[in-house]
Design a protein that fits this description.
Blueprint lengths: L2 E3 L3 E3 L7 H4 L4 H5 L4 H7 L1 H17 L2 H15 L11 H7 L7 H5 L19
Antiparallel strand pairs: 1-2
Helix pairs in contact: 4-5, 5-6
Length: 126
C-alpha cells in the first residue's frame, strides 16, 4: 500500500521510498536548526496577505478586509465531488496565483487517482 512515512518520505506502491518525489533523506538537516531565512520564506505568503489587509484597512476601512477574508474562506471551502481532489482554482484566482508557474504545476502527479491504488485506470495499458 502506498502512503507517506513521516520519518523517511513518501512510500511508493511496492513499499520502497520514492526518492524522485520526496528527495534524498538527510538526517543531519532534520536535526540541526533551520536557517532564519527559511522560516521567513515559509511565512512569506501569509505576511504578504497580512500587509495587503492592513493597507486595505487603512485606505478603505474595516469592511474591505472583512470582505476579502470572507471571500477567501468561502473559496477555500469549495471542493469537488467526494473522491476527487480539488484544484482550488477559485482560491488561486482570488489570490492572484493563477498565472504563476510553480514546481507543482510541472511535476504534479499525472493521474488524479494516483493516491488511491483502487483506481488504477491511468496506469493500465490496453
Amino acid at each position: 500500500s502506498s502512503g507517506i512515512n513521516a520519518e523517511y518520505g513518501e512510500v511508493g506502491p511496492f513499499g520502497v521510498i520514492d526518492t524522485m518525489r520526496s528527495g534524498l533523506v538527510n538526517q543531519r538537516s532534520e536535526i540541526t536548526p533551520k536557517h532564519p531565512l527559511e522560516q521567513s520564506e515559509f511565512l512569506y505568503e501569509l505576511n504578504q496577505h497580512r500587509i495587503k489587509l492592513g493597507m486595505a484597512n487603512s485606505i478603505s476601512g474595516m469592511a474591505v478586509p472583512l470582505t476579502i477574508q470572507t471571500e477567501r474562506a468561502s473559496a477555500a471551502r469549495i471542493g469537488r465531488l467526494p473522491g476527487m481532489k480539488s484544484s482550488y482554482l477559485h482560491l488561486e484566482v482570488f489570490a492572484g496565483k493563477d498565472e504563476d508557474l510553480t514546481i507543482e504545476d510541472v511535476f504534479d502527479s499525472p493521474c488524479p487517482w494516483e493516491d488511491s491504488p483502487k483506481y488504477s485506470r491511468c496506469n493500465v495499458t490496453a
